[in-house]
Amino acid sequence: MLVVTAAPSKNETRGVRAAAMSAELETSEGLDEPEKKISGVPEKENHTRMADLSELLKEGTKESHDRAENTQFVKDFLKGNIRKELFKLATTALYFTYSALEEEIDRNKDHPAFAPLYFPTELHRKKALIRDMEYLYGEHWEEQAQCSEATRKYVERIHEVGQNEPELLVAHAYTRYMGDLSGGQVLKKVAQRALKLPSTGEGTQFYLFENVDNAQQFKQLYRARMNALDLNLETKEKIVEEANKAFEFNMQVFNELDQAGSLLAKETLEDGLPAHDGLPAHGRLPTQDGLPVHDGKGDLRKCPYYAAQLDKGALEGSSCPFGAALAVLRRPGLQFLLAASVALAAGLLAWYSM
Fold first, then answer.
1. What is the pLDDT of residue 94?
2. pLDDT at position 42, please?
3. For residue 113, what are the contacts with CB-CB under 8 A and spacing of at least 6?
4. How is residue 152 annotated by DSSP?
5. What is the rounded CA–CA span in Å between residue 339 and residue 346?
């Protein structure tokens, strides 16, 4: 008998999915060792199946994960030391990366080595990144977005894997999505605070997983699905190796962003601080979110006002009167007025002394 029912509401759909997740986790974790054994399968092969891919990935990428977290770009980001232009470049890199990743995931959504990990509604980031790009760059963002060299190499590897070794796509999906569900939430708050982005999410949609109610439970489900993939030990080891490559690609992108940040700081310094006297051209120190910045070159203590403010800790909104004074003195008209004022003052002083 064919039974036609009304389409479930969004809440009902989430409830069913949550129940399915719970049941799947209980099924995966509640089996005794004898039940997990497959009759007729040699002990060696059974041992291979018992090597959980999620654990192999966790242990096998620990060093790479630590190195990625300790790149200068990530450390600066976590401290809130990021310019909006640099944040735009980072978002651009993510856009190209996820465009490639999700293109290959869609291509291999029915492949047995990846199908159980296909969660487009819950995980895919491209649409969210398009909204972020529109907010950060404006309506014609596609004309401005350029794929950097490090990102291009990352994208090429993702396409190569997706088209030739789909089982290795697991490594790239694991590296990106599991990280996004974890540390990504911290980066969202940092970006909103440091760049004064709207709390309503404009510019940080990438970090918002609207269809994942409980990130921890979802990650458990994802790991259970990875562990259920029918892969031999050799393939699992190749996936771990590929995951380390994915971390390496990400570190190359981070290092590239760090170099771009240094260049942006240098350009800001050169625009605001003439090299011959170390003072701001327009009477104000280059700032980031209202705070004076310096790229480590030269000695800002040559500006007495900056040094005094630095000692007091009163930096926000500070401008340097020495630079402003020099800027005024360079104007011929004001030089004449200043000279006349000095002459008048001298005359009055002489008259008063008589």
1. 98
2. 52
3. 166, 167, 169, 170, 229, 230, 231, 235
4. H
5. 10
Q: 116 is written with which tokens?
A: 């159980």
pLDDT for 266? 77
Q: In this structure, what is the dihedral angle of CA atoms 73, 78, 84, 85, given to the nearest 10 degrees? A: 10
Q: How many other C-beta atoms can be found within 10 angstroms of the C-beta atom of residue 128?
A: 20
Query: Looking at residue 267, what is its pLDDT?
Result: 74
Show the CA angle centred on residue 47, arms to residues 45 and 53, nearest 5°.
105
pLDDT at residue 229 is higher than 60: yes
Which residues are CB-contacts of 81 (< 8 A; sequence separation ≥ 6)?
194
pTM: predicted TM-score of the whole model, two decimal places: 0.66
Rounded to whole angstroms, what are the CA distances from 7 to 4, 12, 226, 292? 9, 10, 30, 57
**Which residue in the block uniquely carries the two structure tokens 């011959």?**
276
Q: Is the pLDDT of residue 346 over 70?
A: no
Whose CA is closest to 254, among 311, 203, 183, 321? 183
Confidence at 332, pLDDT banded by 50, 70, 90: low
CB 71 within 8 A of CB 258: yes
Write phi, then psi, for 252 (nearest 5 degrees): -65, -40
Give the count of alpha carbons within 13 A of 90, CB side only: 23
